[in-house]
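Hey, quick one: can you model this chain's 3D structure?
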Amino acid sequence: MAKNRKTPDMNLPVWFDGQNINEALFCEEFLQESRIIFANRAFFTPNGRVTDDIVLRGEVYEKLKSYTISSVPQKIKNIMELLKLEAMVEDLPPQPDRIHVANGTLMLDGRFIEGKKEIVQSRLPVSYNPNAAAPALWLNFLDGLLYEEDIPTLQEFIGYCLIPSNKGQRMMVIKGNGGEGKSQIGAVLSAIFGTNMKDGSIGKISENRFARADLEHILLCVDDDMRMEALRQTNYVKSIVTAQGKMDLERKGKQSYQGWMFARLLAFSNGDLQALYDRSDGFYRRQLVLTTKEKPVDRADDPDLAEKMKAEAEGIFLWAFEGLQRLVANNFKFTESDRIRENREGGYMVYRIRETAFGGGTKLSAEDGFLQFMIERLLASNAPLLEECEDEDLEEVGDEMKLTSLQSITDFMICAGRTLPDNIRLWARRNLAVARSHEVSPEERRHAQRALSIMMNIQWKSNYFEAIDPVAARRILDEELYGMERVKQRIMETIIQINRTHTLPAYGLLLVGPAGTGKSQIAYAVARILRLPWTTLDMSSINDPEQLTGSSRVYANAKPGIIMEAFSVSGESNLVFIINELDKAASGKGNGNPADVLLTLLDNLGFTDNYMECMIPTTGVYPIATANNKEQISAPLMSRFAVIDIPDYTPDEKKIIFSKFALPKILKRMSLKENECKMTDEALDAVIELFSNTSGIRDLEQAAEHIAANALYQIEVNRVSEVVFTAEMVRSLLRD
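Sure thing. Here's the predicted structure for all 736 residues.
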């Protein structure tokens, strides 16, 4: 026994039996005494994220040292790993509506809650003092460093960094010739942000995919001396600046995972932040570029200025909070002087096509942001680029542009080259010839141009599919569906398959079950998990296959079918087709069977629209169908799906869904508090009894709406403080 161990006649801790330490019980007791959780791969306390667990290890050691002298480091290591399991919670999301400071929590509306009452993701070391003096040294320093009209922008950006949010979608670069003292800003901000601020390198972030993980949970990353070489790639930097939630993070030698990213980037440099290959304005328009004043020749610098300004931290915090409130009131649109706008435009490496020779002397013209549109399409393409466009400069429009004129369509085809599928590229050339020909009727030219516009405005992507976070997928399913564990398991198996193959499964999903059991809700949840646009085909309203396939161009009023229109509306070739009431697909009343058309869509070989007169690639299409009766679906159509039977809910399940999900959701939507609308157990039973002969939960949701609306009426009209529904009240209300 250790020499300092308590004697047997004294009370021993529950985790120590006199000889051995029960590490699991130790962790239980430790967590009862310490407010700490483990989430998002880190420990969190009321003081925020534990950036260095040495303090935590020290606390563990202090409790252990009186009971053991052997293998102490190993025991501490084991306990730290067990603590992660014992203290684990699923997630600790950021709170962008408040700022946790040393002495409490400051809401964005100015309300202050004193004390550290909750475990938080980040807490600033500075205190909130509404009576703090104005930071005279700080303001005087900024007046000498920056132009007066640019200081509000800096104020807003520093305030923006106080909350875990990237809604502003901007980074800041402060540039000068050197020696102006701009790096003093970073030194002062360290007193406000503490461990929530990190020194970093924009260059390293742009080149190293692992560097993003180092910014997880960080509010502000400062590059104190940004290197003056053009970034070879910008996608990592842009993803950090624009992240609004979780993103894929990687650490060397470890599996990638989904982590919270809300780090803002602030860089000090002697020049512009340039990109070597990125010609889009997506990189440049996210920069707020401030230029410093020239340093006076006779200025005498105070070596202790940064430390003196740190003493004004409370006043600087109030100043920054004022900027944040102004930014929020302006919907996260930063104040920008003419100088800042000029700085951004001067840094653009985007360009406009002015004169590129094209067969026979015709020249490319690029107005209304054509080139920006083109660049963004090429950057997003996975196909090989064999043709290039060579002239430069551009205006900012981006993907808002639509290709409608023959000139813009021609320009796009020249630039896109083999990024387009081969058959579509050849089809486009033929239709372009028709649209330009004077040997065909005006009607034919009009149809050809319309078809070209539709086809060229669709981004034709490869069938490669990025991995999906299984934890996030499961969370979405749990949010949308109560119970249905077998259904959820089948969907999760599909997700794991996608992650292994990086392609969509060869078979879609067919959800079969009674009306109102949530089949469509499951379909929408899967589309949300896949992060794909979705479209709906309601087979009960489709009586003629021509509605799906479009009509021939021989007719003056010809138009594409709704399948082609779905591609056009989504703007890309990869999407989810939610086919409702598939069992009614064989009930066509026109010139054929709509079910036969669906077979070509579901084969992943390609789909032909009569109006387009072209085979449309469907390898990126994922079908999810719903049906009430699978017996009415043809065998060939059934063979294209993996069938999932959706059972009806039991009375007990309906009771839980009504009381825990449907009614609370309606109350929240109507701005009613739970204590304003109550139901006795007998009332809940009465609701379930009234709808015992109906399948699904739609009637229950309507009942919840009716009950909540009645409660609201009584509160507003009869001036009661609450309504408690009894069984008799429910029966009387719902039977009317």
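One thing worth noting: The two ends are 78 Å apart (CA to CA).
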